[in-house]
Amino acid sequence: MSLSIDDVKRIAKLARIRVTEEEAVGYQGQLNGIFGLIEEMQAVDTAGVQPMSHAQDLAQRLRPDAVTEPDRRAAFQAVAPQTENGLYLVPKVIE
Questions:
Q1: Which of 14, 50, 77, 94 is deepest in the core (most CB within 10 A)?
Q2: Where are the domains of the chain?
């Protein structure tokens, strides 16, 4: 796929970016280079290659899923203006 100058200007207009004629020519070359790289990558036969989540074999260090904070619900609700059945009551703002 190759972009024309008009395509670059249209993309810039859609993105609300003002570009001069010289900038449009430069962007055209850069965008066409990107599209060329994408075409090269799509031409590679990847049949039989398993997808991977990362280029290197890394493991995510996960913390144990354990509660570390004390339950302070009663203390927080004690200072609330109104509560009922463990819920905060707020005034109706939409009629």
A1: 77
A2: 5-43
Measured in degrees and rounded to the nearest 5, phi and psi for residue 88 equal -85, 130
Distance CA 57, CA 60 (A): 10
Amino acid at 26: G
Architecture (CATH level 2) of domain 5-43:
Orthogonal Bundle (1.10)
pLDDT in tens for each of the 95 residues of the chain?
A: 789 999 999 999 999 999 999 999 999 999 999 999 999 999 999 899 888 877 888 777 888 889 899 999 999 999 999 999 999 999 888 87
- pTM, entire model: 0.51
Cα separations (Å) of 81 from 51, 87, 88? Answer: 54, 11, 8
Contacts of 54 (CB under 8 A, 6+ apart): none
